[in-house]
């Protein structure tokens, strides 16, 4: 309990003598007026450190700091606890890397002091490291701009899932890249309404399609064929993801489609195969045929989800086909 008040003023909770309302030490018994509160804060802060919740622990220590008189040894002890947490929050010792980097290091050290920046780096380091590993694979194979384009396109695809999952209130994690393979967003999808899952699944190919349009826009502005190639591959990757098998986006989206909608996807993808000569369309058709046969139809299919599925198959198929046709036309071998 903190110092308590009465109609006549504030009393020391330890000895009961009358004290100033802002007194941190009782002038009579010389004990801390907030002793109980301080004990509680310290206990909680240590628990939080043990649980690895350093930021929350730090806030508890800072709160304790405000209840301690400036010249007390307890205050210095709390300051030491805060420094320990700060060291753990920025694991690389500031001194040695600031020296190595010179003035740049000093600037970086100043930026790092803002805990929000630090937190961003800590919580997003998995994304950043995995994205660079992913990029490095394509850089080594096809060069810098191709690597940037493909990494950016895959990133946008995953952000589609992430943002849609967040929109529905799920605690989604930021994308993780699997170098040479792809990427994924982790979220708790078990037991979720198939229509909601389908929307989160389809948001990926939708954002992926937009990334292809952006690449095509860059091609229009600078005329470099690499961006046409990126637009083509973006469309292709997203069409691939719409095949309703394995863990592809198409598989969970198809779960929300009723019999008629699946027949529509089947017909559209067969027609697209004949128009575009794109083999992925045949795979979409075969896998959709299998899902028709499986009869895992939803209880209450929503038409909007079916339309979105079909629109995305068409959009990504045509994007890939269109970019490839234009590349053949403009840059014949
Ligand atoms: Zn996806």
Describe the structure in your own words.
This protein has 333 residues and is mainly alpha-helical. The protein contains 13 helices and 5 strands. It folds into 2 domains: 4-89, Methane Monooxygenase Hydroxylase, Chain G, domain 1 (Up-down Bundle); 124-330, no CATH class. The strands form 2 sheets. It has a 3-stranded antiparallel β-sheet with strand order 1-2-3, with no helix packed on it. It has a two-stranded antiparallel sheet with strand order 4-5. A hairpin with a 6-residue loop joins strand 2 and strand 3 (18-19). Zinc ion (ZN) binds at residues 157, 161, 204, 241, 249.
Q: How are the strands of the biggest sheet laid out side by side?
A: 1-2-3
Largest sheet descriptor: 3 strands, antiparallel
- Oligomerization status of the protein chains: single chain
The pLDDT mean sits at 84
Helix content: 55-70%
Kindly report how far apart the N and C termini lie: 83 Å
Shape: elongated
- Per DSSP E runs of 2 or more residues, the count of β-strands stands at 5
User: Regions with pLDDT < 50 over 5+ consecutive residues?
Assistant: none
Number of helical runs? 13
List ligands, each type once. Answer: zinc ion
Instruction: Report the radius of gyration as a whole number of Å.
Output: 30 Å
SSE arrangement, N to C = EEEHHHHHHHEEHHHHHH
């Amino acid at each position: 309990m903190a110092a308590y008040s009465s109609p006549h003023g504030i009393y020391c909770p330890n000895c009961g003598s009358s004290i100033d309302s802002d007194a941190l030490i009782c002038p009579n018994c010389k004990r801390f007026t907030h002793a109980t509160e301080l004990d509680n804060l310290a206990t909680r802060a240590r628990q939080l450190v043990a649980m690895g919740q350093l930021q929350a622990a730090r806030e508890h220590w800072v709160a304790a700091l405000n209840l301690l008189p400036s010249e007390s040894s307890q205050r210095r002890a709390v300051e030491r606890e805060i420094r320990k947490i700060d060291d753990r929050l920025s694991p690389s010792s500031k001194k040695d890397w600031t020296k190595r980097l010179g003035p740049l290091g000093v600037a970086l050290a100043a930026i790092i002091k803002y805990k929000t920046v630090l937190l961003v780096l800590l919580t997003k380091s998995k994304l950043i490291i995995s994205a660079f590993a992913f990029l490095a694979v394509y850089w080594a194979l096809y060069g810098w701009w191709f690597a940037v384009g493909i990494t950016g396109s895959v990133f946008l695809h995953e952000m589609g899932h992430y943002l849609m999952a967040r929109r529905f209130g799920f605690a989604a994690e930021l994308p993780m890249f699997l170098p040479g393979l792809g990427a994924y967003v982790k979220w708790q999808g078990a037991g979720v309404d198939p229509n909601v899952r389908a929307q989160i699944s389809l948001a990926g190919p939708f954002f992926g399609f937009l990334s292809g349009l952006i690449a095509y826009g860059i091609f229009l502005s600078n005329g470099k064929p690499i961006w046409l190639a990126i637009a083509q591959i973006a469309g292709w990757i997203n069409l691939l993801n719409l095949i309703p098998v394995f863990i592809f986006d198409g598989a969970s989206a198809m779960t929300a489609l009723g019999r008629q909608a699946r027949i529509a996807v089947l017909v559209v993808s067969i027609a697209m195969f004949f128009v575009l000569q794109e083999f992925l369309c045949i795979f979409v058709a075969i896998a959709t045929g299998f899902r028709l046969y499986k009869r895992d139809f939803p209880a209450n299919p929503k038409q909007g989800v079916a339309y979105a599925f079909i629109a995305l198959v068409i959009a990504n198929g045509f994007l890939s086909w269109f970019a490839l046709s234009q590349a053949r036309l403009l840059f014949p071998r």
